[in-house]
Amino acid sequence: MKVAIKHLLIFFLLLVVNFTAKAQAIYRHIKNYQVYYGWAHSTPQDKLVLRRFENDGKILFLMVNPQTLQTEVTDSDIYQIKPMSATEARSFFKNTPYQKALSKAESQSVMIQDAGIERGMPKEAGISLTADLCPSHRPLDKIIFTDIFNEFSKVERPVPIALSVSGIWMKQHQKDLDWLKMMEQKREIDITWINHSYNHRVSKSLPLKENFLLEPGTDMNFEVLETEKAMLANGLTPSVFFRFPGLVSDQQLVNKVTGFGLIPIGTDAWLAKGQQPQAGSVVLIHGNGNEPVGVQDFIKLLKSKANSVANKQWLLYDLRESVDEEFGEVRP
Ligand SMILES: [Zn+2]
After folding, report:
1. What's the gap in Å between 74 CA and the centre of ligand 1?
2. Residue 65 Cα to ligand 1 middle (Å)
3. Is-contact 146 303, C-beta < 8 A?
4. Which residues lie across from 194 on neighbouring strands?
5. 16 alpha carbon to ligand 1 midpoint, in Å?
6. 276 CA → ligand 1 middle, Å
7. How many whole angstroms separate alpha carbon 180 and alpha carbon 173?
């Protein structure tokens, strides 16, 4: 009897833990938000601290599990934390999928467009879906989310999707954001939040090498950290991924982004540009209402794969797991 009660207690405790883990806290009074590297000692898996901040008198850390690429915000008294320099942290965690992905992204950044990781390596056929939420006056293209849920709910629930979100979009689309969070709470979708810069400036006339984040005078500290703060203030947990506006960058900019501990995510299948997805593709569509062609292409792709989806032969992959699998195994 006692044992049964104990089990029941543990069960409820787990339920509570699970629930709080999903309902991400909202940090409205962030102060002293800074890049901070450190080693959070924990069993069975050590974590890497990337940011430190204060909120309502509490010290908090944003950290990543370097094996799974899952991020979390944690109270300072939960872990023992040893501060490190960026270089020390990279060498300490050098054999992890996170660190390998970071180095790979740096080495793939010579081109002006599409630097970074552009495909994962899932075991089965399928893709990782990323949708960009650049600043836009149009409402969120909800059909993407309702359609993937309808198509996949029998085989995958919640359905994983990665959303690259800009600071301005969050500011102007509170209702859309609430709707997405509601879908998450109902466990219909599971969102990986990618940093897409704050202002997402773009010029129609400037050449690529001076456009988007390469525009002279761009403050990368602001672009990266203000977006993260806006995510946290909206109850979203920043991931370790970054997507360049317009997919435009140069080596120096890529190094700046990896200096924040963030992995640039490119794409090998921008649907509106006619690029066809392969197994393991990181597919790009725009969810901000500005690129209906890409969304229609995606819906078409979904319908054409309906049978494979039903047989679990074509699935959507969590970007964190795809990148993690790509860099997780030691290959000869
Ligand atoms: Zn964008």
Report:
1. 30
2. 27
3. no
4. 164
5. 37
6. 20
7. 11
Q: Which segments within the chain are labelled E, that is strand?
A: 30-41, 47-55, 58-64, 71-75, 80-83, 126-133, 159-165, 189-195, 238-242, 263-264, 269-270, 282-286, 315-316
Tokens, residue 94 = 């050098």
Please report the pLDDT score of residue 17 as a whole number. Answer: 44
Distance 240 CA to ligand 1 centre (A): 17
Tens of pLDDT, residue by residue over 145-194, are 999 999 898 899 999 999 999 999 999 999 999 999 999 999 999 999 99
Distance 42 CA to ligand 1 centre (A): 37
Compute the distance between CA of residue 165 and CA of residue 130 in angstroms, rounded to an integer.
Answer: 11
CA of 268 to the centre of ligand 1 (A): 16
Please write the tens of the pLDDT for every residue from 93-106.
999 999 999 999 99
Task: Break the chain into its structural domains and give their ranges.
Answer: 26-92, 97-328
Which pTM does this prediction carry?
0.90
User: pLDDT tens-digit profile of 53-109?
Assistant: 999 999 999 999 999 999 999 987 888 999 999 999 999 999 999 999 999 999 987
CATH of 97-328, one of 3.20.20.370, 3.30.565.10, 3.40.50.300, 3.40.630.10: 3.20.20.370
CA of 232 to the centre of ligand 1 (A): 20
Give the Å distance between the CA of 134 and the centre of ligand 1. 4
Half-sphere exposure (Cβ direction) of 202: Cα atoms closer than 13 Å: 13
Each residue of 270-321: pLDDT tens digit? 999 999 998 899 999 999 999 999 999 999 999 999 999 988 888 899 999 8
Between the CA of 14 and the centroid of ligand 1 the distance, in Å, is: 39
Q: Tell me, in angstroms, the distance from the centre of ligand 1 to residue 278's CA.
A: 22
How far is ligand 1, taken at its centre, from the CA of residue 170, in Å? 13
Q: Which two tokens stand for residue 244?
A: 């360049």
